[in-house]
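Lecture notes, part 5. Sequence design as translation. It can be helpful to think of inverse folding as translation between two languages: the language of shapes and the language of residues. The source text, in structure tokens, appears below.
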């Protein structure tokens, strides 16, 4: 993770403050938004930056039993940053897997109908993001999670 910090790019600046991302698997390391956001689809693959700087993470991801991956991203929420209340889909279904790399004590993930999710390092949740959710990092430490989109 430390090797790719320089590649983190602002993610959805209109939806919060201090939200950054890096694609491990996707169209390119800096295309962190959903595929439909970009006018030209480049396909999904392991990004060259991830191959070079995150080989053990890629090895771990490959061990998870996915048939194929779509977007896989490192997401960072900077200290005192927040992600505005939103929902990612309109229809209820389990979607991406969110894996905590770290989760500072004063960083809270609020999920409608569920309250505050108890993220700790290594804890993963497959989430129904038709529920409204937001994240507030009221700590002095960046919060890092990996979000996995793919087919199992």
């Amino acid at each position: 993770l430390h090797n790719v910090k320089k590649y983190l790019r602002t993610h959805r600046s209109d939806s919060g403050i201090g939200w950054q991302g890096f694609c491990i698997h996707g169209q390119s390391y800096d295309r962190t938004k959903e595929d439909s956001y970009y006018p030209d689809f480049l396909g999904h693959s392991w990004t060259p930056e991830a191959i070079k700087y995150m080989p053990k993470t890629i090895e771990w991801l490959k061990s998870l039993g996915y048939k194929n991956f779509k977007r896989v991203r490192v997401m960072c929420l900077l200290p005192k940053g927040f992600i505005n209340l939103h929902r990612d889909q309109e229809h209820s279904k389990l979607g991406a897997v969110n894996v905590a790399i770290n989760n500072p004590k004063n960083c809270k993930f609020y999920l409608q109908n569920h309250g505050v999710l108890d993220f700790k390092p290594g804890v993963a949740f497959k989430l129904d993001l038709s529920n409204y959710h937001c994240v507030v990092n009221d700590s002095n430490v960046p919060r890092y999670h990996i979000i996995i989109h793919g087919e199992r």
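The translated text above is only one of many valid answers, since several sequences can fold into similar shapes. Helices lie at 48-53, 55-62.
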